[in-house]
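User: For my dataset I need records formatted as: sequence, then C-alpha cells, nothing else. Please produce one.
Assistant:
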Amino acid sequence: MHAKKLDEFLTSATEVGKLVPLAAEHLDIGQALRNALPASVRGLYQIARVKQGKVVIFAESNAIAAKLRLLEPTIVAELGRRGADVTGIEVRVQAEMPRTPHFHDRRARLSPAAGQALDTLADRLPPSPLRDAVRALARKAR
C-alpha cells in the first residue's frame, strides 16, 4: 500500500472532496480581502460564506460594517483581479464575534519635510510655550 498525498485523499472522499474547493476559495477570498482592506479593519471581520456570487462578511460593529460597505467596489475589484467570481458583498453585524488579536499603532508620523516646516514655523514665533512645543514636535519628525 502506498501513501497518498493529503490532497489526493481529501478529494477522493466524496463528502470531504466537495469541501476542499470551497475551503480553497474561502482562503483565497480571505487573502484578497487582507490585500484590499486597510490595516485599520484587519481582524475586525470574518468571512462567513460565498453565496450566489456574493461574499457574506460578518463585521464586529456597525462602524466596521459601514466601512466595508464603502469599500465594496475596491473589494469586488480585488477579488475579480484574483479570479474569484464575485459580484458583490453582503455585510452583517455580528455582535459577539470572536476577535483575533489586532494591534494598531495609532501614533501619527511626521515626514522630514513636515519637521522642516515646523522648524521654520518655530523660528517665526516669539519665545513662548507654543514655540517650545512646535520645536519639540519638529524634533520628533527627524
